[in-house]
Amino acid sequence: MRKINIESTLYSQLIIDDENKLVIKFQPKTNVFLYCISEMRDKLRKWREENYRNSEQIVDVGEELINEHASKLGDDIWIIYEQVMIAALDCSRDDLAWSCLQELKRQFPDSHRVKRLAGMRLEALERYEDANKLYDSILQDDPTNTAARKRKISILRAQGKSSEAIRELNEYLEQFVGDQEAWHELSELYINEHDYAKAAFCLEELMMTNPHNHLYCEQYAEVKYTQGGLENLELARKYFAQALKLNNRNMRALFGLYMSASHIAASPKVSAKVKKDNVKYAAWATSQISRAYQLQHLPAGVMLTSLALSISSKTPYTTAASAGVAVVIEIHGRRQT
Amino acid sequence: MHEDDSGVTKKRTLQLPSMSVPLSSHEMGEVELSCLAYAKMYLHASQFPRCSVNGLLLSSSAAGGAVCITDCVPLLHTHLSLAPITQLALTQVDVWCSQTQQRIVGYYQANACASDSSPTPCALKIAEKIFEQCNNAVLLMIDGEKMFPGCRVPPIVMYERKDARWALKDKHTIMLRQWEETCSIVNQLFSSGDQALLVDFDSHLDDITKDWTNQKLNAKIMELVSPANGNV
After folding, report:
1. Cβ B74 vs Cβ B56: under 8 Å
2. What pTM, to 2 d.p., does this model score?
């Protein structure tokens, strides 16, 4: 490219290339540099604080920050090293993880926090025995170190040892009752093991401490729905409704409300009044769904047809599906009426 | 297991162009997996490497004879064993299939734990339900350990219903047309960034403007497929 500086602005140069075409080339100048760095730092901070797991993006942004602009980061650099290292492990970038770890080891030679990161790297390499030894040594020094304990539980999970992971996590929660992350992890483990009653218990703990979180309400409702039986379906409907009250754009809650109300209305065991009420709730849900799709100029066709069919139980999957609710309970070995 | 040498030989027999291996109706138990279905399944599993993912396998060909899996619908990447969204998704896909002359012929799942590709109870239950509607339904587990670039064996383990249980299918009855072209198409999707176009049912519920039937991605894949050979 022939570089003819026709105009040189702070951010760009206009250049005439070999084919005599005008091209804008981004030319970094000092203050543009700093503007970019602070933007990148802010992004990393946001992802860190909100616990995002967008590891590819973190590696992209973080690697550039570390390699090109380390001197301008001040003390932030250490927390960024930690964040980028974990993201690098997630993306199988052992080279990057190793270099971040070395920097951190150099700066904080006896730190338990850095030792835990070393353990995570061993986990990523599937050297679980070595990782466990490292975590055990941390716990010997400091038995209250929650991070090391939770990593040990994660190793059990990675190895597929769900029942042991569940047991350890329960023991952990007896000591550290307020650990939200742990309660949520436990609910996930129980859901995978089809132990819905215990999963519901964990979600109840979470709802108590986070009454405004619509996602916990909705998840609780889903678990109740899966457990099946009239009482659980009514609870499910109530919690789907609660989730909607907290966030009226939660589509899962809207569909869940529809499905639980329809199942209750279709049940032979309910009184005429309950049936009538639930048909009303289901109809309301359908109208809200239809509205949501129409607002986005989307064809609501498939969604509404299938919903209408499921009320009249005309598709094999709903008849099988309502049987499916019962089937799912059967895995668990208990029949609930 | 049975990879490398024996796998390579098997792959060579699978390379025969479709014309010279007519799928006649008495060749029961044969399953053919199209490039489109394979690509979308692979993309789905890659998009959520830390979660278990599942989806449905569809066929646009008539019932009877060999099963041709022509497309797939990625369903969930969270809480596969919770009922409401699974039921919703199954009904939706069923209705959409009847509107588009397709049938649900199978189910696929990729476990979060890459080293464990055995079907979970939830997978077996959903496959059962599909089998009730389609008597040569297949259950397909994606083998995470074989999903590295340059792997010469399809990362697939297929099960079929035999004697009231799900048994491993004979590898000889699984046909993957033009395996190498399929692999290269998947690689192209990754390098062009088009793999991010894939939408599963869960993502649709998070943002209803996203199309869980993946019309855009289907079109992109079919574009890549057609120049490679006249008919797929």
Report:
1. no
2. 0.81
